[in-house]
Design goal:
By secondary structure, the chain is an alpha/beta fold. The protein has a single domain, classed as Uracil-DNA glycosylase-like domain (Uracil-DNA Glycosylase, subunit E). It has nine helices and seven strands. The strands form two sheets. It has a four-stranded antiparallel beta sheet, with no helix packed on it. Strands 4-3-7 form a three-stranded parallel beta sheet. The protein is globular. The two termini are 32 Å apart.
């Protein structure tokens, strides 16, 4: 299911506007697959940082992330930058962009991840110390349900043939390529996928912080959930990262 950037360069390069719209992006030119009310679209997110010490796994890019990534790719093309660098730059610009990133940074700080990685705070992990982390999603390419962001249920990821195929082909390969990193699955929907991989013997459970809550503003219980599991998450993080 892995998409190739060169198939989409002509359309991406033709896009205009300071900000891109759903009318420009949720179109057949970028559509990868459809399943009932759901559709999956291309985004230049294929860069994998194999040297990362921390791997953060979301559900799937939302429209905010898709728009930033496609716009960054377009701007790279217009500036004449190397095509080989587009995926990396798009992911750096867009991964967990917006309030979700701010929440995530605070949550990483709360369980001591920056200190374990030798950096000042979680913000540095999305800045000058970005080489320490790899960001990805259970479903690498954005999925929308009748134009709305897919939120991890109705159906669950592995109950959907389209999404299950993406997770089993692309995410599993990433987990193997970034094989030393501590893994933070953001929320239950992602944890459920990784638990299945553990049961199948494809993933070591000690790598995963399964109780880490989703940082979305829509998860009003995230701080309570984090506080409940804070000591366990901190201890497991320290144990795994100490061996690197």
């Amino acid at each position: 299911m892995l998409a190739r950037l060169d198939h989409y360069l002509e359309y991406i390069g033709s896009l205009t506007g300071e900000k891109l719209t759903k009318e420009q992006l949720l179109v057949p030119e970028l559509r990868l697959e459809e399943q009932g009310r759901m559709a999956m679209y291309y985004v230049p997110y294929d860069y994998v940082n194999e040297n990362a010490k921390l791997m953060i796994v979301g559900i799937t890019p939302g429209f905010t992330q898709m728009e930033i990534a496609i716009r960054e790719a377009r701007d790279c093309l217009l500036a004449g930058g190397p095509i080989t660098d587009i995926d990396r730059r798009a992911k750096l610009a867009a991964s967990f962009a917006g309030t979700m990133r701010a929440n995530l940074v605070q949550m990483l700080d709360r369980i001591g991840i920056p200190e374990l990685l030798g950096v000042r705070d979680g913000g540095e992990l999305f800045g000058e110390k970005r080489g320490l982390i790899h960001t990805t999603s259970a479903i690498r390419y954005p999925v929308f349900v009748e134009g709305r962001n897919y939120t991890g249920h109705g159906p669950s990821i592995l109950q959907s043939p389209m999404m299950a195929a993406c997770a089993r082909s692309i995410l599993l390969e990433e987990l193997e390529r970034v094989d030393d990193a501590l893994i933070i699955p953001l929320g239950k929907a992602v944890s459920d996928v990784l638990r299945v991989f553990v049961q199948e013997g494809r993933l070591r459970p000690e790598r995963c912080l399964f109780e880490f809550p989703h940082p979305s503003g829509a998860n009003g219980h995230r701080w309570k959930q984090l506080e409940t599991h804070k000591e366990e998450l901190a201890a497991r993080s320290a144990e795994w990262l100490a061996r690197l």
